[in-house]
Write a structure and sequence with these properties.
Number of helices of chain A: 20
CATH class of the largest domain in chain B: Alpha Beta
Strand order of the largest sheet of chain B: 5-2-1-6-7-8
Number of domains of chain B: 2
CATH superfamily of the largest domain in chain A: Crotonobetainyl-coa:carnitine coa-transferase, domain 1
CATH class of the largest domain in chain A: Alpha Beta
Oligomer: heterodimer
Number of strands of chain A: 12
CATH architecture of the largest domain in chain A: 3-Layer(aba) Sandwich
Structural class of chain A: alpha/beta
Number of helices of chain B: 18
Largest sheet of chain B: 6 strands, parallel
Chain lengths: 440, 446
């Protein structure tokens, strides 16, 4: 039974193998859309080598550097990686990258089109030395098309704007609203790994690698499901509806008696009946305007039933509403904030909020990869490092370089370490040793 | 020289991965069979759709009356009898019916599971066990099976036995992301004055879609492990965890000093330049997280000297909210002088001729989905190419978001009615012919 399968999962997961053991990933990525993809593979057990241009590295290092002089964004987005500072403008660094690429399975970048190729480490150049390489490039507009060819830069916010996602995520009559999350980056990175792992499956069947390109905007459009056929079928533009879900009724966010925002949903027949009974109005479930879901969804009916529910919710506290939802089998939840997530007992018990004990950045809680796997649990283990922190380890362990070779690479500027600046250097309390692998 | 190499690269890659030639290439997952038992869950349907796009044979199993999710459609609108959400994510899947309340149907399910690689289900924890088709039971029949469960709270933990169903707006509410997205309530105003200045969820079913996509990654990883070892396994995902898992820094920030992110409209809680700005004819997104990009933005507007851009040395001071609230009105006064098109053109021109070229700020028009669907850039890249479906006719659904040189994804059909493939699938997997199917129908098994 399910309890047997998952017994002591949290306690035992650190003693079990990871599913992508044995795969090696190289990344030349910055900010969110890029680095999050390899981070996913790293949590699934792949060995990830993150190449940054020294001495500044990933731009995320500049963003709210408050956690021991480091950005919590960089910490969250980059678990389980080895960090090298490799100045790919330099031919010697390009050669180091090619040596690594010859021994890698997957390469990820998020630069504008053609830049990797101009550094002699593009897909066509790497496949000459490693024909089975899987190479993914992620950026605003993909590799071709008008916007890519105009060489436009992009950010997550641009994708929220271009795709219509922000437009659809606001209240009617109000300006489009930017989502606080970097959703197009985050979601896009996840979609990228669906392609990478499918390509890996194909490679294991045939030996063939391939090139994959991904655009920030195109990914998020996929999640806007009904919007596109709606516009085609009705000839009208799709409009935003605030917190109301126009495809599910009732589903909206309401304000409770104790002024807490509570989301509620009860569309399926037994759920809607349960809600009406909980409201003390069981007759509503039989009302011809509300009985069938498709009828209830019609704008005039949905508006009416949502008003009835809103008035009722104002008479109950959020705790009462959540208890009624359990009792009557509909869904209700107060809107969680950061504290609710961090303190949630269920997340802790499952190990979703997992304890990190990092040699450099200390102890804290972070999200575990959200797919739990009974035989091969994903694991978040360590976190961000200063620029070039693992240079010696990677150069010696993977490439077999001697101290002399490494010294030369530093002298010509191919290898580099951090600039003495917030976000780049080690934290102020670093003892000069903790976390170093090759030599302390 | 760099220019020449780049254009050669662009031509080469387009020739290799243009969706127009996708049908001539092999499919990555066409050796995999997946059973999808999703029930009232778009997360499950979305997960199996993604895998079907890569070529997996997905057998979608519904109760004879069809999955309730088919009725979840905007304003109750149907196209050829189908809800518009389901219409877009039935793609490439075969649809059969099985009444799992009946013991005979559960025996048939076991027979299918014995032949499958992956099973996706979204029932409340314990339901599959009670039916005798839980993971522990099916692994006896097929130890290689990957058994993927998607539920609101997961298979274990204090709330796993919750009776609450799983809907997208609830996932969003439990994520912290709805809490700190939305307009700020102006001082002295109330919810009655500004009913939209509240925690605001995303319009699309992102909670469901992200959950389904995470599970697709989990399934593909489990397939990799199985190729190495022969071992199947059970996968457990709580949708509530899947959407909040990407919350970039809010939860760490809270642990640092108790900080709770609050709403800040279309600014960012801590980043600059990173906001929506009003224009003469709408609005644009502005991005310049690197110092040089923020300087380029000031320069592009002719404000280099006025704003003292040459003196700026770090982005860190600009991120704090007080500074953003000071700079916001200054830049909005400038952006209001131009149209969206003018600002976009200015940024492209700046990348060629500006003082800091090729560095230029990000300027993107805020589009309605109607504008997005007409944008020739996306049309050219095949996102909105109509799919001519054998049952539903011409349908526009967003597609080809992955462009791949060897195994490109493709949409072969968009959807199928309930039980449309009973004949084909039962014949293929169980050898059941028309008379057996007729009997099963009479016994209300299918």
């Amino acid at each position: 039974m399910a309890e047997d399968t998952w017994k002591d999962y949290k306690e035992n997961k650190r003693f079990k193998p990871s599913p992508l053991k044995g795969l090696r990933v190289l990344e030349v990525c910055t900010l969110v859309f890029g680095p999050l993809g390899p981070a996913i593979l790293g949590q699934l057990g792949a060995e990830v080598i993150k190449c940054e241009i020294p001495p500044l590295g990933d731009v995320t290092r500049s963003l709210i550097p408050i956690w021991k002089e480091q950005s919590p964004g960089l910490i969250h987005l980059n678990p389980n990686k080895y960090w090298i500072g490799l100045d790919l403008h330099k031919p010697e660094a390009q050669e180091v990258f090619r040596e690594l690429a010859a021994k890698a399975d997957i390469i990820e970048d998020n630069l504008r089109p053609g830049i990797m190729e101009s550094w002699n480490v593009g897909y066509r150049q790497i496949k000459e030395i490693n024909p089975s390489i899987i190479f993914i490039s992620k950026n605003g507009f993909g590799q071709w098309g008008q916007y890519a060819e105009e060489n436009r830069p992009s950010n997550d916010g641009a994708a929220q704007a271009f795709s219509g996602y922000a437009w659809m995520s606001s209240f009617p009559g109000q300006p489009p609203l930017k989502n606080r999350l970097f959703i197009c980056d985050d979601y896009g990175a996840l979609m990228g790994e669906v392609a990478v792992l499918s390509a890996l499956h194909y490679r294991e069947r045939t030996g063939k690698g391939q090139f994959i390109e991904l655009s920030q905007s195109e990914n998020i459009m996929r999640t806007m499901s009904w919007v596109w056929p709606y516009q085609q079928v009705t000839g009208k533009g799709a409009m935003p509806a605030g917190n109301r879900d126009v495809s599910i009724c009732p589903a909206d966010t309401f304000r409770s008696k104790d002024d807490i925002f509570v989301a509620l949903a009860a569309p399926a027949p037994e759920e809607f009946k349960g809600l009406c009974t909980a409201m003390g109005k069981p007759e509503l479930a039989e009302n011809p305007r509300f009985k069938e879901h498709l009828t209830r969804l019609k704008d005039e009916n949905a508006t009416e039933i949502l008003k009835i529910i809103a008035d009722w919710v104002r008479t109950k506290t959020s705790q009462e509403l959540e208890a009624l939802a359990e009792e009557y089998g509909f869904a209700a939840s107060h809107v969680y904030n950061a504290r609710d997530i961090v303190q949630d007992e269920h997340f802790r018990e499952r190990g979703f909020m997992t304890d990190i004990d990092d040699p450099i950045y200390g102890e804290y809680l972070d999200h575990e990869f959200p797919v739990m796997m009974s035989r091969t649990p994903p694991k978040r283990k360590w976190t961000a490092r200063p620029v070039g922190f693992d240079n010696e380890f990677v150069a010696r362990n993977i490439l077999g370089k001697s101290d002399d070779d490494i010294k030369k690479l530093y002298e010509c500027g191919a290898l580099g370490k951090w600039f003495d600046m917030v976000g780049r250097r080690p934290p102020p309390d670093w003892d000069g040793k903790a976390g170093l692998i090759m030599k302390r | 020289m760099a220019e020449k190499e780049k254009s050669d690269w662009v031509e080469w890659v387009k020739e290799q991965d243009d969706p127009r030639i996708a049908h001539t290439r092999p499919e990555a997952l066409d050796d995999i069979t997946i059973l999808d038992l999703s029930n009232k869950s778009f997360a499950g349907c979305y997960c199996s759709s993604l895998l079907a796009e890569f070529g997996a044979e997905v057998v979608r199993i519904e109760p004879p009356e069809g999955d309730f999710i088919r009725t979840c459609t905007p304003f109750g609108i149907l196209h050829e009898g189908e809800g518009l959400n389901y219409l877009t994510e039935g793609r490439n899947k075969f649809h059969i019916s099985l009444n799992l309340e009946k013991a005979e149907a559960r025996e048939i399910l076991k027979g299918l599971a014995a032949q499958a690689d992956v099973l996706i289900e979204t029932y409340r924890p314990g339901v599959m066990d009670e039916w005798g088709v839980g993971y522990e039971q099916l692994k006896e029949i097929n130890p290689r099976l990957i058994f993927a469960s998607i539920t609101p709270f997961g298979q274990f933990g204090p709330r796993s036995q919750s009776k609450q169903p799983d809907y997208d707006n609830i996932i969003q509410a439990r994520s912290d992301i709805q809490y700190d997205t939305g307009e700020v309530m102006p001082e002295g105003k109330t919810y009655d004055d500004y009913p939209w200045a509240i925690p605001t969820k995303a319009g699309p079913w992102i909670g469901w879609c992200q959950s389904g996509t995470f599970m697709a990654v989990g399934i593909l990883s489990a397939l990799h492990w199985r190729r190495m070892t022969g071992e199947g396994q059970a996968l457990d995902m709580a949708t509530t965890e899947a959407y909040t898992a990407f919350d970039d820094y809010a939860h760490l920030w809270h642990q640092l000093d108790g900080h709770i992110n609050e709403r800040c409209g279309s600014l960012d809680p801590a980043l600059w330049l990173y906001c929506f700005a009003p224009t003469k004819d709408g609005g644009v997104f502005l991005g310049g997280l690197r110092l040089e990009m923020w300087q380029a933005f000031a320069d592009m507007l002719g404000k280099w000297d006025d704003w003292g851009a040459g003196e700026w040395t770090s982005m860190v001071p600009f991120g704090v909210m007080e500074e953003q609230l000071k700079w916001g009105p200054l830049i909005f006064a400038e952006t209001r002088k131009y149209t969206n098109d003018e600002l976009v053109t200015m940024s492209i021109e700046y990348s060629k001729t500006g003082r800091l070229a090729p560095i230029t700020p990000v300027v993107a028009p805020i589009c309605s989905p109607e504008e997005t669907m007409k944008d020739t850039n996306w049309l050219d890249r095949g996102i909105f190419t109509p799919i001519v479906d054998p049952v539903y006719g011409e349908v526009i659904a967003a597609q080809t978001q992955h462009k791949m040189t060897e195994t490109p994804i493709r949409t072969k059909w968009v959807c199928r009615p309930v039980g449309y493939d009973n004949e084909h699938i039962f014949l293929k997997y169980t050898g059941f012919g028309p008379s057996k199917l007729k009997a099963m129908k009479e016994q209300e098994i299918i």
